[in-house]
Amino acid sequence: MTIVEESPARGRVRVRRSPLRFIPMFSILLIVYVGMKILNIDMRGNLFMLDEFTVTWVELFILAASFVGMIEIAKVAYPGVSNFWETVLIGGMMLLYFVLFVLGIFRTDIFGMFRNTEFLMMTLICFVAGVMALYINNLTRGKTIIDERD
């Protein structure tokens, strides 16, 4: 996580960073997904019910993937801070999700767990978040360069 603090007295931006910033949150989601598949937990089974509304594991994973995507985008949205390696790792997770889904499509035994619609939706959300993170990082870097020229 990157924490940006502005010091009005000095006019500088101080950045505090954690080493956890290099771990894409989509990797944690992937580990939980694979763990649930290995434990043979029914992804389409009901998690809980409220009157006539039911929530399944699939819906929970889609919601979690959406939140993770927004968090990954927010991680790289600091103007004046180079988040190059964070965006490269987000792009790497995007590529990993795509490769796992393609291997699942070709019906290989070990990758068969990735041949379903919930993993396709997680792959698409990861792809959109990765593209947007790269785009926003480039925009904030460009704004910083333009601001320094003034």
Task: Explain the overall architecture.
By secondary structure, the protein is an alpha+beta fold. It has one domain (22-149). It has helices spanning 25-38, 57-75, 84-105, 117-149; strands spanning 2-7, 12-17, 46-50, 53-56. The strands form 2 sheets. Strands 1-2 form a two-stranded antiparallel ribbon. It has a two-stranded antiparallel sheet with strand order 3-4. A hairpin with a 2-residue loop joins strand 3 and strand 4 (53-56). Helix 1 (25-38) packs antiparallel against helix 2. It is globular and about 45 Å long. The model has no long low-confidence stretch (mean pLDDT 81).
List the helices and strands and how they pair.
Elements: E1 2-7, E2 12-17, H1 25-38, E3 46-50, E4 53-56, H2 57-75, H3 84-105, H4 117-149
Antiparallel strand pairs: 1-2, 3-4
Helix pairs in contact: 1-2, 2-4, 3-4
The helix count comes to 4
Q: Taking Cα atoms only, what radius of gyration do you get, to the nearest Å?
A: 19 Å
Shape: globular
Overall mean pLDDT score?
A: 81
Task: Give a quick precis of the structure.
The protein is α+β, with helices and mostly antiparallel strands and 150 residues long. It is 59% helix and 14% strand.
